[in-house]
């Protein structure tokens, strides 16, 4: 995905045309602080990663962005989240479903349990909206193709592998036609092959879809996002591009600096890294930069 430039920290926190706005959000579970004065926005079509260690608040922030919070007694002590200027409470079920969809880190827990085939699982949410049958079929067909599930359409969802179930969860979410897809550690329990298969599918999702990828590791997020938010103890420590993230002092402390990024940073320090080329922790992107450099070496 292409590189997005940012002009200032204020610009990075507030997109000029926002789909989702988080305004000075503070939140606690049973008096335990989780989010502390968080402000950011997500623009239509933006590819954003929210990264942080365990306990950083990223899952809670993801749930606020996707409209899973507030609920019941779980309310913000300060601030708000709005969708094009409206709070989640103002939206009916169909409008909420079309605004954002949330996909968690355990695929099996996201299955409805009411569908006997992959095809029916993808149709389940759209069917609950009371849409006309032809539209449901069209949405299922589109989402099935988008997530490469056609060959599995007649399978029992619980018979699929973890990676296939995660693609199914995304397909079911996409059948709701959301403008934002929020994913919480979507490859956390995957082997490398399953992770790469999911990342390949992510690249095929519509460009106009905003993606919010939340993770405790850097590698997969680097392959998806163009903008990176580092969440540290419930506060935003950084908001910007990959180069700034990888050179931020808290990044190495929280994640450990990936070997590929470390190599790229060493090359940059020696003025061997191409000027203006973003540093990435994605091995494929680093290899693309290194390959011509090595070919030109004596």
Describe what this molecule looks like in 3D.
There is one protein chain. The chain is built from twelve helices and ten strands. The protein is α/β, with parallel strands linked by helices and 298 residues long. The chain has two domains: 234 residues, Rossmann fold, CATH 3.40.50.300; 51 residues, no CATH class. The strands form two sheets. A six-stranded mixed sheet has the order 6-7-8-3-9-10, sandwiched between helices. A four-stranded antiparallel sheet has the order 2-1-4-5, covered by helices on one side. The radius of gyration is 20 Å and the shape is globular. It starts with 8 loop residues before the first helix and ends with a helix. 40% of the residues are buried.
Secondary structure topology:
Elements: H1 9-13, E1 20-29, E2 32-42, E3 47-51, H2 58-66, E4 78-83, E5 86-87, H3 93-99, E6 100-103, H4 118-128, H5 133-146, H6 162-174, E7 180-184, H7 192-202, E8 210-215, H8 219-224, E9 227-232, E10 235-240, H9 242-247, H10 249-255, H11 259-269, H12 283-296
Parallel strand pairs: 3-8, 3-9, 6-7, 7-8
Antiparallel strand pairs: 1-2, 1-4, 4-5, 9-10
Helix pairs in contact: 4-5, 4-6, 5-6, 6-7
């Amino acid at each position: 995905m292409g590189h997005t430039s940012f002009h200032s920290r204020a610009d990075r926190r507030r997109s000029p045309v926002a789909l989702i706005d988080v305004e000075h959000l503070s939140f606690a579970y049973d008096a335990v602080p989780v989010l502390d004065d968080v402000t950011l926005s997500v623009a239509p079509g933006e590819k954003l990663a929210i990264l942080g260690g365990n306990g950083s608040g990223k899952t809670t922030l993801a749930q606020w962005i996707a409209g899973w919070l507030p609920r019941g007694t779980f309310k913000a002590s300060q601030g708000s989240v709005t969708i094009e200027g409206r709070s989640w409470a103002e939206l009916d079920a169909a409008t909420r479903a079309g605004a954002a969809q949330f996909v968690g880190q355990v695929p099996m827990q996201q299955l409805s349990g009411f569908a006997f085939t992959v095809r029916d699982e993808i149709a389940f949410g759209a069917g609950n909206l009371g849409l006309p049958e032809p539209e449901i079929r069209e949405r299922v067909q589109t989402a099935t193709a988008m997530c490469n599930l056609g060959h599995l359409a007649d399978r029992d969802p619980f018979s699929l592998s973890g990676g296939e179930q995660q693609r199914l969860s995304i397909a079911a979410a996409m059948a709701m036609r959301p403008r934002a897809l929020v994913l919480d550690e979507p490859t956390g329990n995957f082997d490398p092959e399953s992770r790469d298969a999911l990342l390949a599918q992510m690249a095929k999702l519509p460009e106009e879809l905003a993606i919010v990828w939340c993770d405790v590791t850097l590698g997969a997020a680097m392959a998806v996002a163009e903008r990176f938010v580092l969440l540290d103890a419930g506060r935003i420590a950084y908001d910007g591009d990959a180069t700034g993230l990888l050179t931020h002092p808290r990044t190495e402390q929280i994640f450990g600096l990936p070997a590929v990024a470390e190599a790229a940073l060493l090359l940059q320090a020696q003025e061997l890294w191409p000027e203006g080329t973003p540093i990435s922790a994605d091995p494929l992107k680093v290899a693309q930069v290194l390959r011509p450099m090595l070919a030109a070496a004596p």
